[in-house]
Specification:
This is Phosphate/phosphite/phosphonate ABC transporter substrate-binding protein. It comes from Nitratireductor aquimarinus. Pfam families: Phosphonate-bd (PF12974). InterPro entries: PhnD (IPR005770). By secondary structure, the protein is of the alpha/beta class. The chain has two domains: 210 residues, D-Maltodextrin-Binding Protein, domain 2 (3-Layer(aba) Sandwich); 100 residues, Periplasmic binding protein-like II (D-Maltodextrin-Binding Protein, domain 2, 3-Layer(aba) Sandwich). Helices cover 35% and strands 17% of the residues. The chain is built from 13 helices and eleven strands. The strands form three sheets. Strands 2-1-3-10-4-11 form a six-stranded mixed sheet, sandwiched between helices. The protein has a three-stranded antiparallel sheet with strand order 8-5-9. A two-stranded parallel ribbon has the order 6-7. Helix 6 links the parallel strand 6 and strand 7. Helix 3 crosses helix 9. It is globular. It starts with 12 loop residues before the first helix and ends with a helix.
């Protein structure tokens, strides 16, 4: 699983949640007339129905700060990541002609609140919190770390032994299927959200057995302890690289569209000319030989994404699990 997918709150989350709630209440009266808003907060509009906040049409409401503030998703040791991001920040400064300040956020709520209040201009939001940033803070996702050929993220894959007799999702009925743990996104929540649409309802159509991890699920399938298992592609790929199982013994019966990792976003009210410079900086940055490239192995560049298309599977999973895009919903991420 990507490090950013299951990021939890660090210290100060309660205070940040209170601050975001107060900020939302304080700006409710500023809601503009808008033909379409969708799930966006009242201070934003989505006239073109691309699910993200529109750029203000009034030039006086555009932001073009002398210093850009950049934040990466909350991590255990922000100081280390400030050093890791230093080569990229230098590149961002060169391309935009702006000073850039790294902002070490302590929680997902604090990061969302900072962008909503105008104190944060460019940010990496974790997979799950991204829809909250879009709807509560006017964040516009535009980039993600990917490989040279443009691929990014990971997939949910259902593995079984080649001799299991399972050839399609309907064949899981009546079987013993390994999920990883109750809180795992790709190992449990995503299957529960996505499989019913494929004609298979976990617990109802097959027995769910918690293995404890993606590794254990895969090894259990190989050993015959489980009939099949939904697992994260990046985990089983690493296992294959370490020869922990024989590729000839297993097969994939279904896989999802790619699940995105951290989204890189800009604040919706940035001047469009500045946004183009920011995008240029991201898409021209070379990971090779940098601390960033060493930290995030398997990626070589930023690739373009859209929230509407590339976060569709995340929105579907969150909807199925009753997630609401409110400060209180964000606190559960």
């Amino acid at each position: 699983m990507p490090m950013t997918t299951d990021t939890r709150f660090a210290g100060g989350a309660a205070a940040a949640l209170f601050g975001l709630s107060a900020l939302l209440a304080g700006t409710a009266a500023q809601a503009q007339d808008c033909a379409n808003r969708g799930q966006l907060d009242g201070m934003y509009c989505d006239a073109n129905e691309d699910l993200v906040a529109d750029t203000p049409s009034d030039p006086s409401k555009l932001s073009n700060p002398d210093t850009l503030v950049f934040a990466y998703t909350p991590v255990e040791d922000p100081a280390i990541y400030e050093d890791i991001w230093e080569p990229f920040i230098a590149h961002l400064e060169d391309v935009t002609g702006k000073d850039v300040q790294f902002f070490a956020v302590q929680s997902n709520s604090a990061e969302v609140e900072a962008m909503r209040s105008g104190r944060l201009h460019i940010a990496g939001f974790s997979t799950g919190p991204t829809p909250f940033a879009v709807n509560l803070a006017g964040a516009v996702p535009f980039a993600i770390m990917g490989s040279e050929d443009g691929r990014f993220g990971y997939k949910l894959q259902v593995y079984t032994r080649k001799d299991s007799g399972i050839n399609e999702m309907g064949d899981l009925k009546g079987k013993r299927i390994a999920h990883t743990s109750p809180t795992s996104n790709s190992g449990n929540l995503a299957p529960r959200a996505l499989f019913p649409g494929l004609g298979v309802v976990p617990e109802q159509d097959y027995e769910v057995v918690y293995s404890g991890s993606h590794d254990q699920s895969m090894l259990g399938v190989v050993a015959g302890d489980y009939d099949a298992a939904p697992v994260a592609s990046e985990v089983v790929d690493r296992m294959a690289e370490r020869d922990l199982y024989d590729l000839e013994e297993v097969k994939i019966v279904w896989e999802s569209d790619p699940f995105p990792t951290t989204s890189y976003t800009y604040a919706h009210d940035l001047d469009p000319a500045l946004v183009e410079k920011i995008k240029e900086a991201f898409f021209s940055f070379d990971f090779a030989g940098t601390a960033l490239g060493e930290e995030f192995s398997g990626v070589s560049k930023f690739v373009p994404v859209t929230y509407q298309k590339d976060w569709a599977v995340i929105r579907e999973i969150q909807k199925a699990n009753g997630v609401e895009y409110t400060p209180q919903g964000l606190a559960k991420e």
